[in-house]
Design goal:
Elements lengths: L1 H9 L17 E5 L20 E3 L6 H4 L11 H9 L3 E9 L14 H18 L5 E6 L9 H7 L9 H13 L4 E6 L7 H13 L6 E4 L9 H15 L3 E6 L6 H16 L4 E6 L15 E2 L2 E2 L1 H10 L2 H5 L11 E7 L3 E3 L3 E10 L1 H6 L5 E8 L2 E6 L4 E6 L6 E11 L4 E11 L13 E3 L1 E4 L12 E2 L18 E9 L5 E8 L5 E9 L2 E4 L4 E3 L9 E6 L7 E11 L3 E9 L7 E8 L2 E3 L4 E8 L5 E8 L2 E6 L4 E5 L5 E11 L4 E3 L3 E6 L9 E3 L1 E4 L12 E2 L20 E4 L2 E4 L7 E8 L5 E9 L5 E9 L2 E10 L4 E11 L7 E12 L2 E9 L5 E5 L7 E2 L5 E2 L5 E5 L2 E5 L2
Parallel strand pairs: 1-2, 1-8, 2-3, 3-4, 4-5, 5-6, 6-7, 7-8, 12-18, 19-22, 31-38, 39-44, 51-55
Antiparallel strand pairs: 9-10, 11-13, 13-16, 14-15, 14-17, 17-18, 20-29, 21-22, 22-28, 23-27, 23-29, 24-25, 24-26, 24-28, 30-32, 32-35, 33-34, 33-36, 36-37, 36-38, 40-50, 41-44, 42-43, 44-49, 45-48, 45-50, 46-47, 46-49, 52-53, 54-55
Length: about 900
């Protein structure tokens, strides 16, 4: 009782035991906000009289908080402060989620390193706003394609890596770095039914890798029809595999019929609540119609539904009050994580293992001198180490003949009489090839890593998806997605290191990073590095970068992760990075600032050293070394071969080896415009899908980079949407202000008419404009407007005249979508003056009329006719 009173007094978020429905001191019965509010109103009791935990339904999701970049809407303050006022617990939902991120600005167009930094910044902002959070959904719904944004989030956090789930491990490491006192949770749905096995695999992988995950969360949106026995079996299967605390995080019974809803809640709720590994239950909504789950509410029109009446009765029973919890007092006291150095090892190998522990601030508030007495480590039931001093590290000699999965268990004893357990597993391979450096001794750093010379060992132990033959170490292919290779190195001095990687790539888009799977967690030393195009797969150039984490002296196992495939990498040279702020490194000019592919820009750098002399000035474009100057004036000529935006930096190094990196300048490189096939002769037909080559912003503009069409007509459209239609290809999925441009040769100056073949399947009008482009001047020549044509696959011809004459010679014509609802197949331009036409009309000619072949035609004929001694164009 004394300890319980201390718990209630010391915690920031504690349970007012008699105020809410649940009086169980160790597990909560919580709910969510109602339309962003805490108290639902409408005659329903106030929140704090019902529930003793809260999760924001939407307010704390990244997409809700930072919908506009660097602008933060902390709508979750309302729930956070309410919980604090009424002394109950709070869960932050959620840090990483592939469905609720700010997709207006966080998307594939943002460079990958910027995306990682944006996530890192988001974590920092949450930490700055809420110094302590009792519970956090660190990652939500990451199984497979549960969310469309999962591949983007995975890529942005370092990919699958050695475990297949490295991106999730990294997310938990980032959360633990900021919130070591919080209960860190993985949360997902369908975890009792369709995805039970996948869910267990994911959570167990995080646990086995030593990630600081404290609990697993079952949303429980999949239990409206589950049987009691099936639920009990699913929960047992999870717990037998994971042996960790569990939360029911989003429980709803989505049943409209009151009695059926009550019956289902009666069947399954006690199974969840009375499980001694269940730390709490959060119901997902209690007001009917006030959440995305249609029938989950427990109150209808301010009145209790039978399920709510039953819940109140059950939660007041002795069974409910006395149900055990893995978190007495609802708090985390000691975090325990077992971290094997490797997840897969050869049989008979020596495996370093660390038991990482953290005594929380809340535990220290209860007992100021709380400490760990000892840590016992088991292989199955066999005690393999007893450790009494930090760091709790041992080297375990694996049995020489044992293969398969081995279960490790750490038991931590504290001086308050408590014990804490955690499992991990390691896979022992049938291979007896021990890990060792390729050349027998570790690679000395500073120095050069030959990428092909990764450590000896089995696949999955020292490498996976390596683009080299294991025996000969000859290159066999370009790098592969989620490939990795490890290198045992001996670092001679602690510090920040710069790296220069020899890379080659025919196109931009490959990504790698340098990491270490150490006993203290997963460390990313480098940024996620995008490999620019070097022009070809055999044109190796130097890609420069600087580590963002210090590399300590001593033995390390560095891992080269090839996150996105397709590039070649030959070597990585690491050198100490010592920046001297007294050095001057300034890019004085980039002239010109805009060039086309294969045109030259001259970069001039101002470089000075007050302590020594300038030894070299190296200039980089998107990280690639493009030139070195050793004498003033420090100038480098750069001739880009690929279009895009280039960040230009200069690194000045003095004679003592100190360096200074300049601020960034930007060089814009446009592609050269070329006709898609040939220049279109006018009069003639412009096929809309044959816009000029050159790329986004030069020869076309599309509102996004996604190719929504299905035509598969051309591969250089960079996302402009082409569809099948009218017997060929057409421009489709159009949006306002998108445009395409065409190189034409006007053979005859004069006035022109147009005939546009288009379709519109929308209920509102569609259209586009035809314009003449001269430099930066865009002159509108015609507005093409039309209503629904009978469907997107029904094309019709819309005709009209250009408002201005065309001059003879080479021209650029532009089609600009305005307002949308517009598929364009082709536009035919005819010169009116070349026909000798005297009049244009939709009315039939008076008197006899003849076509240009001299044949008499009737009143319904449309085209050029000769009548009354002159030519006339009869329009449809």
């Amino acid at each position: 009782m004394k300890r319980l009173l201390q718990t209630l007094i010391c915690a920031t978020f504690v349970t007012a035991a008699s105020a809410q429905l649940s009086s169980n001191p160790d597990k909560f019965l919580g709910n969510i906000t109602t339309r962003y509010q805490m108290d639902a109103g409408g005659g329903v009791p106030q929140y704090y009289k019902l529930w003793n935990q809260v999760t924001c339904e939407n307010e704390s999701k990244w997409g809700s908080v930072e919908g506009t970049r660097n602008s933060y809407n902390w709508g979750c303050d309302n729930a956070f402060n309410y919980a604090k006022k009424y002394k109950f617990t709070y869960k932050f939902h959620a840090l990483v989620w592939g469905a609720q991120y700010p997709d207006r600005w966080f998307n594939s167009n943002l460079p990958i390193a910027d995306r990682y930094n944006a996530i890192d910044n988001w974590f920092n902002k949450v930490k700055a706003k809420y110094n302590h959070l009792p519970m956090i959904d660190v990652v939500n719904e990451a199984i497979g394609m549960h969310q469309d944004g999962n591949p983007l989030m995975k890529e942005s956090l370092g990919g699958g890596g050695k475990t297949g789930y490295d991106w999730l491990i990294k997310a938990f490491e980032m959360a633990y770095e900021r919130f070591p006192n919080s209960i860190l949770i993985y949360n997902d749905y369908n975890s009792f039914t369709w995805d039970l096995d996948n869910y267990i695999t994911l959570v167990r992988t995080l646990r086995d890798a030593g990630a600081p995950i404290d609990a697993y969360g079952n949303q429980s949106h999949d239990v409206s029809s589950i049987s009691q026995s099936d639920l009990r079996n699913a929960m047992k299967k999870q717990q037998d595999a994971l042996k960790m605390p569990m939360y029911i995080t989003e429980l709803d019974i989505d049943i409209a019929d009151d009695n059926k809803q009550k019956s289902q809640l009666q069947s399954i709720f006690p199974v969840m609540w009375e499980a001694d590994y269940c730390a709490g239950v959060t119901l997902w909504g209690y007001i009917l119609g006030a959440t995305w789950v249609t029938n989950s509410g427990l109150y209808r029109n301010g009145k209790e539904r039978p399920s709510m009446t039953w819940l109140k009765e059950y939660i007041a029973t002795d069974k409910a009050k006395q149900a055990k919890s893995p978190y007495p007092g609802m708090k985390k006291r000691v975090g325990v994580y077992v971290r094997p150095k490797d997840f897969k090892v050869a049989k008979g190998d020596v495996l370093p293992i660390k038991v990482r522990t953290h005594i929380t601030d809340e535990a220290k508030a209860e007992k100021a001198d709380i400490a760990i007495d000892k840590v016992e480590l088991y292989d199955g039931t066999k005690l393999i180490a007893t450790m009494t001093e930090e760091p709790y590290v041992t080297e375990y000699q694996l049995p020489a003949t044992a293969t398969g999965t081995r279960t490790l268990k750490a038991v931590v004893f504290t001086n308050d009489g408590n014990r804490y357990e955690r499992l991990s597993r390691v896979s022992v391979q049938s291979s007896s090839i021990k890990r060792e450096p390729y050349n027998g001794t570790p690679i000395e750093l500073p120095g050069t890593i030959n990428v092909a010379e990764f450590d000896k060992g089995a696949s999955g132990v020292t490498y996976s998806n390596a683009p080299f033959n294991y025996t000969t170490r000859a290159a066999t292919s370009a790098t592969k997605a989620d490939g990795w290779m490890e290198y045992t190195v001996d670092v001679k001095e602690t510090g920040i290191y710069a790296f220069d990687a020899e890379v080659a790539s025919a196109k931009t888009g490959g990504v790698f990073h340098i990491s270490e799977y150490g006993l203290d967690g997963l460390t990313f030393y480098s940024d996620l590095v995008e490999v620019p195009s070097t022009g070809s797969a055999d044109n190796f150039q130097t890609l420069h970068g600087v580590f963002k984490k210090e590399l300590t002296a001593g033995r390390h196992t560095l891992c080269l992760n090839t996150d996105k495939a397709g590039f070649y990498i030959r070597s990585i040279t690491l050198t100490p990075y010592a920046e001297d702020k007294t050095l001057t490194s300034t890019i004085a000019s980039v002239k010109p600032t805009t060039v086309a592919v294969n045109e030259t820009s001259t970069i001039t750098v101002t470089a000075k050293s007050t302590k020594s002399t300038v030894a070299s000035v190296k200039v980089y474009a998107n990280g690639l070394l493009v030139g070195t100057a050793t004498e003033a004036p420090y100038t480098v000529d750069f001739t880009p071969t690929v279009k895009g935006s280039y960040t230009i930096t200069a690194i000045v190094t003095d004679a003592d080896g100190n360096s200074k990196t300049s601020a960034v300048k930007t060089l814009k490189v446009n592609a050269k415009r070329t006709p898609y096939k040939t220049v279109v002769d006018i009069p003639g037909v412009i096929q809309a899908e044959n816009f000029d080559k050159g790329g986004e912003g030069l020869t076309f503009h599309d509102s996004d980079s996604d190719d929504q069409g299905d035509a598969n007509y051309r591969t250089d459209n960079e996302g402009l949407d082409l569809v099948k239609g009218n017997g060929g290809a057409a421009i489709g999925y159009t949006a306002n202000n998108e445009w395409t441009e065409y190189s034409v040769n006007v053979k005859q100056a004069g006035s022109y008419s147009f005939a546009a073949t288009v379709s519109n399947g929308a209920s509102s009008a569609g259209g586009f404009t035809i314009s003449l482009v001269k430099g930066t001047s865009v002159t509108q020549l015609a507005k093409v407007s039309f209503n629904n044509t009978g469907g997107w696959d029904t094309y019709k011809i819309v005709t009209g005249d250009l408002s201005k004459k065309l001059d003879a010679g080479d021209q650029i014509l532009r089609f600009t979508i305005n307002p949308g609802n517009c598929n364009i197949d082709k536009v035919e331009l005819k010169c009116l003056e070349s026909t000798g036409i005297n009049d244009i009309s939709t009315d039939a000619a008076e008197g006899d009329s003849y076509n240009l072949s001299g044949q008499k035609v009737g009143a319904g004929y449309r085209g050029i006719v000769v009548s009354s001694g002159g030519k006339k164009l009869l329009k449809p």
